[in-house]
Structure formats: structure tokens, C-alpha cells
Amino acid sequence: MIVEFPALNLLLLMPAIGVAFNLFFGYRLGRSAVNTVSVGVVAIAFALSVWATVKLATMPPGSCLQAQLGPWIYAGPLRLDVLLRFDALAAVMSLVVSGVGCLIHIYSCGYMGEDPDFARYFAYMNLFTFSMLLLVLAGNLLLMFVGWEGVGLCSYLLIAFWYDNPLFAFNGRKAFVVNRIGDVGFLLGIFVLFSAFASHGLWTLDFAEMRERAGLISPAIATIACLLLFFGATGKSAQIPLYVWLPDAMVGPTPVSALIHAATMVTAGVYVVARLNFLFALSPSTMEAVATIGTVTAFFAATIALAQSDIKRVLAYSTISQIGYMFLGAGVGAFGAAIFHVVTHAFFKALLFLGAGSVIHALGGEQDMNRMGGLRRRMPLTHAAMLAGTLAISAVPGFSGFFSKDEILQAAYTSGHKTLWLIAVVTAGLTGLYMFRLFFLTFYGKPRLSEERFAEVHEPPFVMAMPLVVLAALSVFGGLIGLPEGVLWGNQIGAFLAPITGRVSAAPAQAVMLLSAITSGVTFIGIILALIGYVVIPTLPERLAAWAQGLYRLLWSKYYVDELYDFLITRPVLFLSSAILGRNVDSLAIDAVVDGTGEAVQGGATAVRRVETGNVQHYVLIYLGGVLLIVGYYLLSALRH
Amino acid sequence: MADNLLSLIIFTPLVGAITIALLADESIVWSVSFLFSLLPLALGFYLLAVFNPDNNGFQFTEHYSWIPQFGISYHVGVDGISAFLVAVVALLVSVALLYAGCGDIRRRAREFCFFVLTLETGMLGTLLAIDLFLFYVFWELVLIPAYFIIGIWGSERRVYAAFKFVLYTLLGSLLMLVGIIYLGLAARKQLGAITFDLPTLYQLTFSKSEARWLFAAFALGFGVKIPIWPFHSWLPDAYSEAPASGSMLLAGAMFQMGVYAFLRFAIPLFPTVAQQATPLFVALAVIGILYGGLLALAQSDLKRLLSYASISHAGFMVLGLFALNRYGVDGTVYQLITHGFATSALFALTGLIRLKYGTQNLLELGGLWRLAPLMAATFMVAMLSSVGLPGLDGFVGEFLVLIGAYLKLWQAAAVGALGLILSAVYMLRAYERAMFGAAPESYKRRALDLNRKELAPMVPLVALILVLGIFPTPVLRRVEPSLVALLAHVYSAPAQLDSLPHENPKRSSPSGVAARE
Prior knowledge:
The complex is a heterodimer.
Chain A: E1 2-4, H1 7-29, H2 31-57, E2 64-75, E3 78-86, H3 88-111, H4 118-137, H5 141-159, H6 166-198, H7 207-212, H8 219-236, H9 245-248, H10 254-263, H11 268-275, H12 277-280, H13 284-306, H14 311-331, H15 335-362, H16 380-393, H17 400-414, H18 418-443, H19 451-456, H20 462-477, H21 492-501, H22 509-536, H23 540-547, H24 549-556, H25 561-595, H26 598-613, H27 616-640
Parallel strand pairs in A: 1-2
Antiparallel strand pairs in A: 2-3
Helix pairs in contact in A: 1-2, 1-4, 2-3, 2-4, 3-4, 3-10, 3-15, 3-20, 4-5, 5-6, 6-8, 8-11, 8-13, 10-15, 11-15, 13-14, 13-18, 14-15, 14-17, 14-18, 15-16, 15-17, 15-20, 15-21, 16-18, 16-20, 17-18, 18-22, 23-24
Chain B: H1 5-22, H2 29-50, E1 59-67, E2 72-78, H3 80-104, H4 109-128, H5 132-153, H6 158-191, H7 198-201, H8 208-225, H9 234-241, H10 244-269, H11 271-276, H12 278-298, H13 302-323, H14 326-357, H15 368-371, H16 373-386, H17 393-408, H18 410-416, H19 418-435, H20 441-444, H21 452-470, H22 473-491
Antiparallel strand pairs in B: 1-2
Helix pairs in contact in B: 1-2, 1-4, 2-3, 2-4, 3-4, 3-10, 3-14, 3-21, 3-22, 4-5, 5-6, 5-10, 6-8, 6-9, 8-10, 9-10, 9-13, 10-13, 10-14, 12-13, 12-18, 12-19, 13-14, 13-17, 13-19, 14-16, 14-17, 14-21, 14-22, 16-19, 16-21, 17-18, 17-21
């Protein structure tokens, strides 16, 4: 059932209104007006999302709400509309984007409370919310691409928000360019799909229509298209090989890291795969690739996270790792579980970033965990919130992350991906280890901060504490929307999403219990190791690092991947452009031909010099006369023949 | 008024130029010339309003005998392809004059305005002429004022740049002239009377080698003007040595003429050769995209960087053109319409940066956002349009070009799309160097942002960048009928327009004009 629901337009346009307001009136009307409007528009968008979801829930499964704003690109039979669609998948995503987004906007009012550029900040944040909602609500693939590149732009602008620092500006550009590389793949994927569907008479790239006619697409075409689209997804969602921008993106303001680089934008790749699941399902080899890349990324990023000392960088690698889990879920066909993990991840990762932000804020910008420690006495609330987030991300049974991650791992095992499952379980242990390492280093042990500065450490103000509390509650209880089948009300979110994403058959109850027990056991081992290493025997990590120096340095240097890319791609391109083309070809070979007519140029040059000092109109006449003479000559000589 | 609308559009700037030349009071030169430039702009918008988009032929035609013994006539007309370009050229000239008046041109204002308005007549005439000889006259008329604008008001190496520009384009256009005359004589042989009238010339037939040579002559003339790689080397010098307002005109308005001429003359006159030459031109286009992009990456001078970026953009247009299907050509025409907005804005802002901060060298600039936020924000919008951000005008054209190229030859689209990465790299790098970072100490004393007068020319450009990115369909709908007619003429069969993969355009014999070989 499809129902027209014009309020979707308003839902999308609310943040856009915020952008315009902030840009044109922001600085003039002052901080409180900016705060009110920026938070207000996102809150209204959230309220509208709730309204639409409630309406959708009362309709039969598989229904959707839609709103058409008008035509966008019509060329020949090509028909691309600005069409918004609100189905179960879009509902879940837009609730997360606007809901978590609203909390982070509120938090920002405190965090950016002293920044003189508040209006620009909130303009970007609202622009981001707009683009992300467009990405989520878009009814066709190209409109989604508008949101897709739009969120990339906002990411760039916000990473480089404190542009005075050249490094920040550089990191922003790095993020944009790496994303652009993925986006070109994405665009080519769109072309493949377009031409394939167009040859069957479908010219709209509309998701619903493509879904209906997916059977017409050959598996080979589906494989090429999906691999290209997935390549785009590895850029936006920071997976191998395009993850390198995300850790560097952490130089942006911390609420930005929470909203864009943890809760919403970076999960857009997972959303695309889930949205196009009917195409990915056509191509088993692509699904394998998605699952494998996801798992390997999850493990790889987790190992790097073990050796980082910057609190935000650890969280960045943990984001990469968690998104790897989501792709594992999508790759084994558990699209619903992947989206469930997107949701719980949005809760606990936003919480962790905002908690880290409170710490950084309280410490005057300090991000190095080597200079933290013992903060639980000064910041009990932040400590408690961070504990909730850390337990959730480590997937300790009962907390939100447990349910979603467990569902993914179950699906991986029951679908026969035992190797991937094993790697994912080991990664679960690593997750417990590096997250509790972060937690203990920050809040436990002896304070490694100077006495005076430690004494000044304070809890965040109410606007920042409130979102922490709400997100902590969601991180603890958010998993209840997706309990395992047969337990209480069962998997509500899975059932809600099922008409779009399909469902995987559940394993027998005993196997479920056993698999959960194994994963949880490994997680606890990780947590206990962290407890030993960072609380009980704090000298142990240093000794370990000294003992396995090579490995430690490899992890600390992030496997030298940045250096490798620099050597393999950046330098050759720059060399080609400046040393070869710039210096030799263009200035010598091609120009030499022209400059070879040197005398003519010289003669002409003197003529112009004279013109400059003389009467120009006079020379215009001479010149015109010359041209006419040449023309006349040709005309006459041609006529004679 | 409708009877002579096109002539009015073409010649009001020339009347303005003469008025300027005779004006006694030099102090009102800027206002008078600006007002004169508004007339063709208003008429251009009127033309868009009264123009019938469902008619795919030439409208508002005027046909007078000019030099009857040579069969040369004054024949002008407008169709969906040229209608928007006329309005855009008129707008860009007004914007450039507005900009030049507030500081860019400080000496010999009268002559400058004279040349700009003459240039406008030339450009508008080029777009509206449908007599080949008349077209040639306007085509050459453009050259002269452009030459003086670079040569007189340019920067240090202006004389060299002006001459290089003229040498290149003259060489190309003389070959084209030979081709035009050959066509006229062929008309006398085949049709009994010498004529340069485009619709009549469609009836001519040529031998295979004749058609090849003729196409080559036109292609060289137009290719140099676009420019197609490897005939591009005049461009970086001309664009970067010209005064900022001159670069706005060269890169924003004059840039379109070569591509337009290809579409209007070279391709429909020799459709078979054009189809055969597709691989060559697609290859040159893709090389141009990458070559321009790579060289833009190597520049430290902002204006030179923008010049090489133009070469890359030209590559996209040629790619779409020679995709020779509805999407590619649609995309190219859309790029012709929109390309000037972002480009003019970028050149204008570069000129202002040089004016206010004394340099346009990226290695010496920095931190302008802190000092000039309005300027930085305007630059950002124009830059994003130039790198093809979806939602802005540049994307629509690039998307259609690439999809057209993909349907024709997917490899070309795949390689050409790398240009999108390069454009992000060089533009963002330039932006970072100029706008981000800390400002050099010496700038702090003169923190100058755009003032109202400097903002005025930017407003229509930025507005159009946004509007045409969100609402391309009203434009595309008006362009399409004429394009479809043109392509139908090229293929002599409308079925080929989409060149979908399951059809093979090569197999069906293009019968058309040049088929009787």
C-alpha cells in the first residue's frame, strides 16, 4: 500500500530551513537564536519521523508513505524525480538520523558554547542532517547520490571546521578526495544499473520499480554493478581499502565525530547495501566479497585500535571495526541484523564520542589517554555513561550491542561462513580489550594530569549531560527492540524490516545459546585482559610492547597503509603532473611548435606594443582590413576555378 | 518587434559600442555600457519567453540577401540549442562589465567597453547565424576584440599570450574558411547556385574523401577554439594573462562557441564522417579531461589552475558531443549553458584576490576565509559547481555526458570519470591553500572582503548555480526537441538516439546526407 504523505517534504526541508536561517541571520541574531532554531528544526524533523513511523506501523506490512516534490532531471525517456519514500527501512534510518542527530545538536550547544563561529557550525550541521535525510528518504538511486555526496561535503566542511590549522584543513580534503574515489565507483555502478534497466524499459532508477524488475537483470551485470556500488560504500563507510580518511577525520569538533563519523554518515554504505539487497542477492560472489571485506576490516581495525593513544582515534578505529560487522551481516544475507546493528551502534557510539567529548572539553582539548587517568572521581556521570557505552559496544550480554552483534554472528555461522565467524569472534574479544583499555586508561589508575589541571576537571553542563544520559539509557536498553526469537516479544525490528530486507532462518535454540556463550566468553576474556593490563598490573602493556616491539610498532603505525598509499598513488600522480607533464610536455613539446613561429610572434609583439601606445581604433581597422583581404582573396581565387 | 528580434539582440551591443566611442563624457562610460549590455539580456529573456519549445526548427528567422553575387545572405534564426546560450552570453557580458567597472579595469575604460560590446555582438552573431559565411564573419569578429582585451589590459606576458591566441585561432579558422568556400562552390555545382545557407547545404553530397577533408577543416577550426587536446596550449596563456574580466568573457562566454559550432555545423553537415570520427574525438576528449586535470594539479598560480581546469571541462563537453546520443549531447548543451556561471565567478574572485591581496599565487596566499568570509563562501559554491557536486548545475551536465558516453563506449566513461577525482583534488587543494590555514601577517592590516559592488556580479551567478542544479528540467525540455531533430538528421533514424546496449548503432547504415558515396 502506498500512501501520499506530503509531510515528508516538510521533514526533509526542516533542516534546510535551519541552514538558510543560520547562514543569513545566524551571526546577526546571536547564539541563543541559532541554538534554538538549529535544534528546533531537527527536533521537528524527529517528531515528523515519529509521526510517519506510527502511521506506517498501522498500515499492512510492506507499505510505504511517499511524497513527490517534482521532476529533477528529465532527458528523453530518462525520468529522475525528487521523490521521497518512507518505508520501514527509511523509517528506522530517519528516526536514528533525526533522533540521535537532535541529541547531538543539543550537546553541541554546550560543546561549541564558546566558539565564535557557532552559526557556521550549526549551518553545516543542519546541512548535514538535510543531506543525510535526503540520502535515506530518496526514492531513486541518483537522488540518493545527491545526499550521498552532500554528506561527504558536510563531512569535509566540518573536519576542516577549525581551518586555521593546516593539518585539519588537509584532513578534511583527504576525507573528501578518498570519498570521491569511492563515489566515482558508485557513479559507474549507477551507470551500469541504468543501462541494464533502461534496456528493459525502466528509466527511473526508482528503488521500488527496480526491485520489481530485478529478475530481468543478469547475474553478471548485477555483480559488476554491486561491486562498483560497494566500492563506493567502502569509501563512505570507511572499509578496506578506503578507510584511511576516517581516523584523520577525528580532528573535527567531537560532536561532529559523534554524528557524522560514528552514528550516521559512515553507516550510509550499509544502508545502500540493505536498500539494494534485491540486487546484491542476485550476485553471490559480491555477497561473499561484502562479508569478507567487512570481517577483515573489523579485525584489522580492531588490532590497530589496540595500540592507539588518542582517545578519538581509538573510537574511530572501533567505528571502522563495528561497520565491518555490519557488512558481515549484510554479506551473509542478514540485512535486517546489519541495520539493527546500525541502530544500536548509533546509540552507543554517539554516546562514547559525546562522553569522550566531555572528557576532552573538561581537559581543555586534551585527547591523549596517556595524560588522562583517574577521571572517574571528578566526572562520575561521564564515567557511568561511558561505562554503559563500553559495555554496549563490547556486546556484554543484556546491553544493546549484544543483541545486534549476536544476530549477525549467528547469521554468519548458520549460513556456513565459519571462518568469517571465527575471525569475528576473535574480533569480539579484541573489542572488549581495546574498549576497556580506553575506559580504564581514561577513568582509572593514577591521574597523569598535573595537580592543578586535575582539580579543574568538571562534569559537563546540563545541555551536554542530558544527551549523555538519554544515549546511555538507549545503549543499555536499545537492544530490547530486537530480542532473539522466542524471548518475550521477540525480534520486533527484524519483523518491522522484514518486508524490505527479508529474514534469515534462525538457528535451533540450543545452537543459538552455544554460539552466544562462545562469543560472550571471548568478549569476557578480552575485558579481563584489559582489567589485568590497565588496572591490576599497569606496567604490563609497556613490557609487552617492549617484548614484541616490531608488532607494536606495526600496529602503532597503522600497518603503514597511509605511507603505502602515499608511495603507490599520491606520489606517482604528483610526479606525473608536475615533473613530467607540467615541466616537460606542456611547456616544451607542444609550446615549442607554436613558439617556433617565433619571428611572427616577435613581429606581432612589436605591433601590439605600438598599438598600445597609439590609436587603437585605427589598428582595429587595419586588422579588420587584413582579415577581409585574406577572406576576399580566398573567395575570389576559389570563384575563378 | 518579433520580426527583427534576433537582429536587435545581435546589434544592440554594437550600437552600444559606437555610442561609447562617441561619448563625450568618459566618466559615464561604465554605466552606459552596462545599460547597453542589459538590452540584449532583456531581449534574450524575452526570446526565451516567446520562443516555442515544441517547434524543433529555426524560429524568428530573418533572411536578407547580403552579397547576392556570392550567394551570401544575412540569415539568422534560433532554436532550442541556441536560445539559452544567447541569454547566457548576454548575462555573462553584463556580469563581466559590472565586475570590470569596480576596479578590474583602471585605464582606458572607454576602449575596453567598446571591445567588450563588440565582442558581444560577435558572440551573439556566431550563435544565431545560419548562413555559414555570416557565421564566419561573426566568428572572426570575436577574435579581434578578444585579442585587444588580452593584449592591452592583460598582465606581464599579455603580448605573447594575445599573439599565441590569435595565431592558433586564425590558423584554425582560415582552414575552416577554405572549407566554407568549398561548400559554397559545391552548392553551385550540385544545386546550380552558390549559397552558404545552412539548411540548403544539408542537401549536398560528397565523396568519402571530400567529406573527410571538409570535416577535418571544420573540426580543426572549432577544435582549436574549444580547445580539444592537443590544440590547447594557447588557452592557459590567454586565460591567465587576460584581465580578470577578460578571462570571465573568454572562459565563461567565448568558451561555448567552438562546441556550439561543432554541434551546429560540423556534425550535421558531415554526419557520416562525424560518426566515423567518434573514437578519435572520444579519445582526445578523455585525454583532455585527464591532461587538463593533471596539469591543473601542478599549478601554483590560481588563474593558471583554473585555465587547465577549463581544458578538462572542455574534454567533458567534447566527450558528450561525440557520444552522439541524446544524453551525451543533452549533457554537453547543458554544460554549455551552465559552465560559464561557475567559471566566471571563479575567475572574478581570483581577480579580486589579486586586487586585494596582491597575489594569486597559491604558495603566498592563505587564511582568506578568516579575512574575507563572503568571498570564501562564494568561491566555495562556484568551486563545488565546478567539481560537479550533485545538486548544483555542474553535476547535471556531467552526469548526462557520462551516461551518454557510457552508453556509447563504456571505457570512455570509466576513464573520463577519473576526471571527477582529479577535479576534486586540484580544486580543493587550491581552496585549502588560499582560504584555509593562517593568513600571512602582511594581510592582517587590510582584511578586505567583498563589498556590495563586488558582490553584485556574484549574486546572479551563485543563484543560477543553485537554481539550475535543482531545476534542470525546464531547460532540458526546451533544448530537447531541437537536439532530437539534429540527432535524427545525423542518424536519419530516431531509433538510434538512446544508443542502448542492446541496439548496435554501427550496424544500421546511416543513410543521411553523406550516404550516397
